[in-house]
Amino acid sequence: MFVLNGPNLNLLGTREPGIYGRETLADVEALCRRTAGPLGLGIDFRQTNHEGVLVDWVQEATGRAGGIVLNAAGYTHTSVALLDALNAFAGPVIEVHVSNVYGREAFRHHSYVSARADGVLCGVGVGGYALALAAIAPLLDAPPADRGART
Ligand code: DQA
Q1: Distance of CA 123 from the midpoint of ligand 1 (Å)
Q2: Which residue's C-alpha comes closest to atom 2 of ligand 1?
């Protein structure tokens, strides 16, 4: 399982704590590892400030990762290249945002990632990463056509 993080998320904990909270990216990685164990998932947790690196990692996921939990941060709202890379990946994708992007500036209301994501979690703080892992686990063996609404 790839857990991929985009630009400025290395600053979690000190960056705009009123919006993103006090937990660091290391705390988020520890949370993901704690959550993944009981779900039987192995975690490859990464962060980059560079759009092309994020694209490279999404390409690398084919053959290396069953699914992707992705907080593309600012590139969520700008990157056609990232959407193209995600569209070439066959496995499930869950989009995560720490903050409630829909309660913020209008430019954050559009996500290129959402056009491809099987699910989106935002506005529940870093706990959204744990929820994303719980959400993606049952999708790992599901063909794309069976990843829709579940009861
Ligand atoms: C973010 C929301 C984005 O709009 C913003 O650019 C980020 C972080 C979040 O986790 O809330 O960098 O993805």
Answers
A1: 10
A2: 73
